[in-house]
Design a protein that fits this description.
Elements: H1 2-13, H2 16-22, E1 31-32, H3 35-47, H4 51-57, H5 66-79, E2 86-94, E3 99-108, E4 111-121, E5 126-134, H6 137-141
Antiparallel strand pairs: 1-5, 2-3, 3-4, 4-5
Length: 144
């Protein structure tokens, strides 16, 4: 009987549907299954000031050397000495054909960091096409 149960479990776990559902996805950087997944990753990286990882995950990592990423990480941690405690969506502009742009603000006490994201919702995923951050609201707000 035990052998039968093991064979049934083995058969179930090797079906294409099970394998697809439980497979690790090797998606390109900046591509997420859902908006919620994208925001969890974005908010986690920004709030913990993991700027090098943020730049790699959201697009500019391949445009910067490791030294530049490290310098940026150091500068951000000097300007913002503590992790952020809150995040708010300031602006959202829905465009056509699944495109939208968002302006978020991350804060801790009187420290604010603004983040701009251009998103493209596709049939099966969502892409962070462009990502920028700045300590100046007006610079990113001007993108709207």
């Amino acid at each position: 009987m035990m052998k039968f149960i093991v064979l049934v479990l083995l058969a179930l776990t090797t079906t294409p549907a099970f394998a697809e559902e439980h497979a690790q996805t090797d998606r390109p950087k900046g591509v997420f299954d859902t908006y919620a997944e994208l925001r969890v990753e974005l908010d986690s990286l920004v709030m913990s000031r993991r700027i090098s990882d943020l730049m790699i995950e959201f697009g500019a990592g391949d445009e910067m050397t490791q030294e530049e990423l490290s310098d940026l990480q150091t500068r951000v941690q000097q300007i913002y000495p503590q992790d952020f405690a809150a995040v708010d969506l300031l602006r959202r502009h829905d465009l056509e054909n699944g495109w939208r742009q968002e302006l978020l603000v991350y804060s801790h006490q009187l420290f604010y960091l603004y983040a701009y994201v251009l998103l493209h919702q596709r049939d099966d995923d969502i892409v962070a096409v462009t990502f920028k951050f700045n300590s100046q609201f007006s610079d990113l707000n001007a993108l709207f």
